[in-house]
Amino acid sequence: MTGVAFSGVVKAYDGGQTVVHGVDLEIARGEFVVFVGPSGCGKSTLLRMVAGLESITAGTIAIEGRVVNALPPRERDIAMVFQDYALYPHKSVFDNLAFGLKLRGCPPGEIRRRVDEAASILQIGQLLDRKPRALSGGQRQRVAMGRAIVRQPKAFLFDEPLSNLDAQLRAEMRVEIKKLHQRLGATTIYVTHDQVEAMTLAQRIVVLSGGRIMQVGTPDEIYHRPRSRFVAGFTGSPPMNFLAGRVRVTAGSVALELGEGATVAVPEPAASALRAHAQREVTLGIRPEHIRLAAAGPADQRVSARVVVSEPLGAETLLTLAGAGSEFVARVGPDAMLRPGQALDAWFDMSRMHAFDPADGAALEAAR
Hints:
The protein is an alpha+beta fold and 368 residues long. Helices cover 24% and strands 33% of the residues. It is built from nine helices and 20 strands. It has helices at 43-51, 93-103, 108-122, 137-149, 167-184, 195-201, 219-224, 229-234, 270-274; strands spanning 2-12, 18-28, 32-36, 58-63, 66-67, 78-81, 155-159, 187-192, 204-209, 212-217, 241-250, 253-257, 263-265, 281-286, 291-293, 302-312, 317-323, 326-332, 343-348, 354-356. The strands form four sheets. The protein has a six-stranded mixed sheet, with helices on both faces. The chain has a five-stranded antiparallel sheet with strand order 13-12-11-14-20. The longest helix is centred in the middle third of the chain and has 18 residues, at 167-184. The radius of gyration is 25 Å and the shape is elongated.
């Protein structure tokens, strides 16, 4: 059964500015879907339209088969968790959790049962008598999530809920949110600009740009089979490297000519797809983990480079290298003791390459 369905959804403001352009998307009941994209891509606007906080200019939004365009927020049976927690500072944690249920006229016994259940799930039972000012950021976010849980809604909506937390707390809360979904199995739409949150939380990711869906897929599909340079560059940390190149076909063998006279051989099956693009300019995409020190790979996939910056991270080292007419990042082992300016050969694992049209950024078949 469909949990939330978007059909031709458009959002335009007075003056003709359109920020969402005909979005079509079905989210299965119980699915965890993440909307991700840069600021201004329309992800929060879509979420607010589901919640009823933004009007819909055209198209329909349905929650479990019921079109909700004209329904006020309170009648949509959704619960929303915001970035700023939105807790009542003068009320205890218990009263914050119970407030919405009291407004709906729930019996006191039912309120106590739901609050205790939510507090147990989120491990905040010991905090019920405290006021928000006595809580840490992570505890406040747990309370905000608990307030949504007690509603027992048809859908949970998260609007960048972790952006106010420090890095360690964000990592901890990602785990808690994932455990929460595994336990409750509720339809969840989560909005973030952080691709790490998207990759770690989502069952499916919706990548947005300029109010349009660029790609929908599992984290694995989005990462390994991006349909455009935009999607490829938005996922991964560090992001994918992009180098200008030209396809060269000689006696059936395929290679990419890069800058500064560098040439790298293209193995099958990518070679088969690129033969149709002989002499064509393309953008080579390759992720940092697929660029290694030269001893790891064949000579015809090596590029002469020099070290610009070395960033030891403990478990690995990130090298910013200059070569082939560009700068690119390689992810190598922690024992790579290299100095700025040092010359080396880098191996491009071309079996993991992607190729994009330089004009529109669309992935070529060689990238699949």
